Amino acid sequence: MLLQELLRDYLPIAILLFVATGMAFAMVALGHLFGPRRDGKAKLMPYESGMTPIGSAVRRMPVRYYLIAVLFVLFDIEVIFLLPWAVVLRKLGLFGLIEMLVFVTILLVGYIYVWKKGALEWE
Amino acid sequence: MSPVIGIVIEAIIKSALMVFVLATAFAYLTLAERKIAAFVQVRKGPNRVGPWGLMQPAADGIKLLFKEEMVPAGADKVLFFLAPILTMIPAMVIMAVVPIGPDVELFGRSIRLGISDLNVGMLYILSVASVAVYGIVLAGWSSANKYSLLGGLRASAQMISYEIALGLSIIGPIILAGTMSLQGIITAQQQSTWYVLWQPVGALVFFLAGLAEVNRAPFDMPEAEQELTAGYFTEYSGMKFSLFFMGEYIKMVAVCAIATTLFLGGYLGPYVEQLPWLGILYFTIKTTALLFLMIWIRLTLPRLRYDQLMAFGWKVLLPLALANVVVTATATVLLG
Amino acid sequence: MSEEERNVVAPEQVPVADSIVARFGNALRTDDRDGYEGYVVSVESLKDVATVLRDELGYDYLSSVTGVDYFDEGKIEVVYHAYQTSGGPALNFKVQVDRENPILPSLVSVYPGADFQEREIFDMYGVSFEGHPNLRRILMWDGFAGHPLRKDWQEAYFEEENKPFDSRWPGGDVKRSEAENRFGKNVSYPDEFDIDNWAPEDDSSLYAGLNKSGSNGKKLKTDSLVVNMGPQHPSTHGVFRMVVALDGETITDLQPVMGYLHRNHEKIGERNTFLQNMPYTDRLDYLSSMSNNLGYSLAVEKLMGVDVPERAEYLRVLMAELTRVSNHMWAIGFLLNDLGAFQTPALYAIRARELILDIFEATAGSRMMCNYMRFGGVARDLPDTLRDENTVDFIGDLVNERLPAAIDELDRFLTGNEIVRSRCIGVGVLPADKAIAYSTAGPLLRASGVPYDLRRAEPYSIYDRLDFEVCTRSNGDVYDRYVVRIDEMRESVKICQQVMREIPEEGEIFTGKPQYNVRVPKGESYGRVENPKGELGYYVVSKGKTNPYRYHVRAPSFINLTVLGEMCKGHKVADAVVILGSIDIVLGEVDR
Fold first, then answer.
1. Class of domain C265-591
2. Is the CB of residue C228 less than 8 Å away from at least one CB of chain A?
3. pTM score > 0.90 for this model?
4. Residue A49 is nearest to which of C222, C232, C250, comparing CB atoms?
5. Which residues of chain C have pLDDT under 70?
6. Residue B146 belongs to what H/E stretch?
7. Would you call A122 and B310 a contact, using CB atoms and an 8 Å cutoff?
């Protein structure tokens, strides 16, 4: 029974995924089929406003971006926790509300800490 | 006939229809954007291919089909090939859980107008939306191009930053409806009223974060022409380029469709109970209105700078969305 | 016009105090050549003289530096024009060096604004400036052989020293150089050229000179990224290139690179006759050809000593001010594009410009390349009707109703816009002292709080009789430059209204008989006008023939770029584009 429900819910999504993927690949394949190809050394140079690129483009990047990624993981987990809670909030009543307020408060403290530390400033 | 085969046949037909409709919507959305831009800017816009330029998207598509595709030297060939596909697929798949009309009777079967109705629909949307960032990061990284790299990094940082606000803004409707199923949220709105009235702040945050999520102006930083030429898809041409383009526009449609479902009552409208097919019309009208709003904003506003954009996401939208959740929850519990 | 008023057009040189002349003895003497003015300074004391001029006499603004190759005398002369920002005529001093071994001390430490101009002289004449921080070619590429403005340098397909060439005139036998070009139709490369193994010029010296370390002294080190923005880039306003060193998104250094549109305008100018140069000036700043014409006319009229009839003066001012309005409309529209607006503000900004161009077209015959002014007047009078309307009514309606409305519209939508304000205020700040030192001009200078406008500082034409304000702002950021442009448009419209009220109904528009080949008396002259983009100067040397011996353009776009790197440091990449937009350059003028 459960299996059938899963099948009913997720099989169509899998099929859509399949169709969409097929279409994406088909589009690329068609482009490959019809498009001309005339390569040249200068032509295949990465575009840098018409100049020969200096240095590699693949390099260590500013640590800022990693910091943002870490913060994202923290807060996104918060969102994931809130989702099921939101569904059953009416059943949980006051208890659930206070429980979550405590959780949000702890997060808020962290948020304020991060803000004050300057992690949200872009320089 | 076993029920599984029925499900499969129905799903295949609906999936094919969905992909076709979205691809057409993409094509005519580009034309609509150009026509609206022309109207706003006192110009004529495309008017040569077919009446009122209606065949313009077809001409563009054919042109792109015959364009040379280049893979820059030094690029990671596999990822470079996969990135546009990875951008397009989530954009299409995210629409799976959005109901575009009530159930209708056809050939003696009750058909749901929508691919599926998950009980964790909102969670599904959030997770698929997260996947979309991969294509963009990989495109930026695999191109071996500095503009692409910067564009890809900007895009990823921007998208994950606004995803938090996006995730928080949908909690309001979930609390009110008590379900994560989109069909359930619409049914709940049928019993009360459009949630945009109960959740104006949530709706606003959702729309703004959605704009940032699909990289539309004024949050179109990753492809900021003024400094990064075309951002992460600088090196792409031909059909691969059009996949990125398609991904962006279908994501626009998806964001507007989800916003319609969550806040504007989805397919609800007068006489929809008597004539279920009307639901599709109402849904289309509401989504189109939101799309028009997105285009209008792009044509009107200059762009924020990158640091201002990140600050807006983290320091304005995030606290606003969090406060909205707390207020909604408190009001729901205390006032019933 | 009376003799007194003529003096306004050609001011006499203000003598340097005798005590100072005495202090330098032989090192500083009056230039006594026929038709020349100013002083000749010896090479050794050049820097001292410049310092004294700047610090003791208040000549704080170095307008123009240029070279002249006196081939027959075996000398190269470098000519400096310095001004006081409080107003008044130029102080012109020159220094002469041997053609074979030209070495001069650099004045960059005294006047930082000499930076690009000295590089240009190095490039064009081969004069080495000792002590210059970055003496490289600026308009030609590094591998170029020779110095194009030297009199013994000849271009490809050289025919004769001076136009009109015998092969074409008066017979009308046209022979085009393109026809001799073996890749004239650009379909094949020469035999020895191998596209696959061709390596573009090496810019290692340029890249090595960049400051790649951020100045913030962060503990975590990140790789600095050197990115080329341009020449083929959507937002550098043409084939202009900025080499940007980035730390994350922050600019640690920026070097402007130009010359991709260089066509040796000045050499062409020396081949042409005086009058033939007029249409060439249109192509400098092609958005404001009317004002370009005016500046060149003034320079040559000074040498010729001709009067301009009253009506022609009014017409000139009318055209120049309409040009200013249309140029600022574009500048603001483009600035908004640089801010990331999707063309909408730009297209609204240029709606009214179309009407201005209609006037130009009806009067001069062309919308952009007007070629309207002549030495001693203008080419044509206003037509009777324009767009089926009486021309005077049309212009009156434009300057009294439509232009003010268009400016108000821009002002209403943009000035208070939150995003515009947050992107522009505090970005690209240029303090007043730096603005003067770097010889910036036009709205860039005035937004920094320096009320220096040539129409007031050294009035030409009839500007001394007109009522208008010099618009300034005090912060010197991108936003102030924008506001100054809005204000200047209002003042220009005010001037146009006065012109339309006071212009003589009838009258000559040209002095004397129009001539194809004017003979210009010997001498030098420096004519300058307040162009929309800043001070546009023409330095013309005549040897009494029909062709200028030297024709130099002091291009405001070019010299304003000197300070670009300075303004961008510490800002984000996106700001560099906006700062460049706020300077308002046209590549036709930068590269010449």
1. mainly alpha
2. yes
3. no
4. C232
5. 1-19, 177-178, 180-191, 193-202, 204-205, 208-209, 211-223
6. helix B146-169
7. yes
